[in-house]
Amino acid sequence: MDKSDRLGMDIFDILDNAIDKFDILHNVIGKSYILDKAMDRSDILQNVMDKSDILDNVMGKFDILDNVMDKSDMQDNVMDRSDMQDNVMGKSYISNNVIESIYLIYLIC
């Protein structure tokens, strides 16, 4: 093998080595692309989790609102009972007036 043949082989080896390195680089770029996609999906998942937390907070506020509404209903019941008590007191007052009127009629007669 003469010197020019060996030089041709060296150039061919260098070219082959460059192609191998290009393939490695291509694989790295492909893996980087896959990693970017995975990171994007991770970000999407994090957004979903954040929105789930927001939804949990909203649901908690609805629970608080339900409790407030229940307490308002209880207060309405107390007010209704107070109105009933006022009605009883009013009837008692009317009953006392009737008794006094009957007693006065009895005294007059």
Keywords:
109 residues, mainly alpha, 97% helix, rod-shaped
Task: Explain the overall architecture.
Helices cover 97% and strands 0% of the residues. By secondary structure, the chain is mainly alpha-helical. The chain is rod-shaped and about 160 Å long. The mean pLDDT is 82.
Helix-strand makeup class: mainly alpha
Beta-strand residue percentage: under 5%
Radius of gyration: 47 Å
Main beta-sheet strand count, sense and barrel state? none
The pLDDT mean sits at 82
- Global geometry: rod-shaped
Q: Give the topology string: H per helix, E per strand.
A: H
The number of helical elements comes to 1
Q: Into which percent range does the helicity of residues fall?
A: over 70%
What is the distance, rounded to the nearest whole angstrom, between the alpha carbons of the first and last residues?
158 Å
Stretches with pLDDT under 50, minimum 5 residues: none
Compute the number of strand runs: 0
